[in-house]
Amino acid sequence: MTAADDASLLHGGDPSADLSSFRQALGQFATGVTVVAADGETGPFAVTANSFQSVSLEPPLILWSLRRQSSKIASFLQADHFAVNVLAASQTELAGHFARSGGDKFAACEWSRGLHGVPLLAGVAAHFECAKVAEHDGGDHVVFIGKVERYACFDRSGLIFAQGRYALAISHPGRPSDLQIDGHPRDDFFLPLLARAYAYLAGAFSEHHSAEGVTTAESRVLAFLATGSGASAEAIAARTFLGENTVQDALARLIAGGHVAPRPPGALVITESGLALLGRITARARAFEAEKLADLPPEDVAATRRVLRELAARGGG
Questions:
Q1: pLDDT score of 22
Q2: H helices of 79-215, where?
Q3: Claim to verify: residue 154 and residue 43 sit in the same structural domain
Q4: Considering the entire predicted model, what is its pTM?
């Protein structure tokens, strides 16, 4: 079967024909999220990056890349040392903080200086203090190679970025058919049961977004604007846990489709068409839920919903 024959195909072809769609395809590869920081003549500076990866263990080399249009590119080209701060799962706000331009970014967060004065953020999952050993042409990006001089790893889960949105790293729940309640004691533990149920339901529902011609990110933007109409793209990204580029791409498609309209200066509102589209998605979600829960006792469903709401409230969700 070719890609064109696959009913789940969203888009494909020549990358230069649609850069936002190409970026969405690249986003199918999950990465961590980092804040790369260095010190300069005017003080510390940093950017959020998910291009970080290991190159070599012997010697200990890593790489990351920065687009040439970044306001920080000149500073990083001049810097001889930098730190890669691997963000923890709880640091989504910090990721957005350093992704935005302007202002003294370090005044609003806790940090300390490492080797050669490189900024090390508090509360991260890991950090790597590096000496820059090479720069390479990467098209519209510059690729930086660093030799790790010192590192630290903490007992915290890392923040994940996949399919244009922030995510959590949890153990794979396995197939629903693998669930053995009477097997290992772990099988009847609350968290793995939740993870398996979520994986099953989320995977089964994804086709309903595609049926309405929208992505999950576009659906989340519409849902936010339905209650927060008049917000900026920056606010939408922060509140929906979507990346800045993902929100910009989603808004471009929603505006082109007449579902969202810009309202200067910088505000965005959902249109009647957008509300109708969101209504159809919501109707699909309710019908999907009813179908999946139809053979369960209503009192059990109601009790489960109350438990989940209580747990979500305790966690600030």
A1: 84
A2: 92-99, 190-211
A3: yes
A4: 0.78
